[in-house]
């Protein structure tokens, strides 16, 4: 169950990163509120996952999901540039996440 909590926490990290961008420096109340709620939920679920998962594994997976997820949202929703180097960086992050998951078993 810890892995499920960690996955949800990572998705919520993507949500709060996106809504923080949409809040325009916390000047948009709706997006600011969503950001804060998603942050609290993400940190809460991360802490629950860390009860059983090693710190390094849990934190790495959480930040990796957030980084790659924000990268994908930036490209698909916000129209950010996709380059070969950015794509390679995302592939390397995902590779690291897979290795971290495999090493935790």
UniProtKB/TrEMBL annotation:
A Pfam family matched by this chain, by name? Answer: Multi_Drug_Res
> What's the chief localization of this chain?
membrane
Mention one GO biological process in which this protein takes part, according to its record.
xenobiotic detoxification by transmembrane export across the plasma membrane
Keywords, comma-separated and alphabetical: Cell membrane, Membrane, Transmembrane, Transmembrane helix, Transport
Q: What is the lineage of its organism?
A: Bacteria, Pseudomonadati, Pseudomonadota, Betaproteobacteria, Burkholderiales
**Transmembrane parts of this sequence:** 33-50, 57-78, 84-104
Q: What is this protein called?
A: Guanidinium exporter
Q: Which domain of life is it from?
A: Bacteria
Q: Which GO terms describe its molecular function?
A: transmembrane transporter activity
Question: Would the keyword Acetylation turn up in this protein's UniProt record?
Answer: no
Gene3D superfamilies membership: 1.10.3730.20
Membrane topology summary: Multi-pass membrane protein
Is Transmembrane helix one of the keywords? Answer: yes
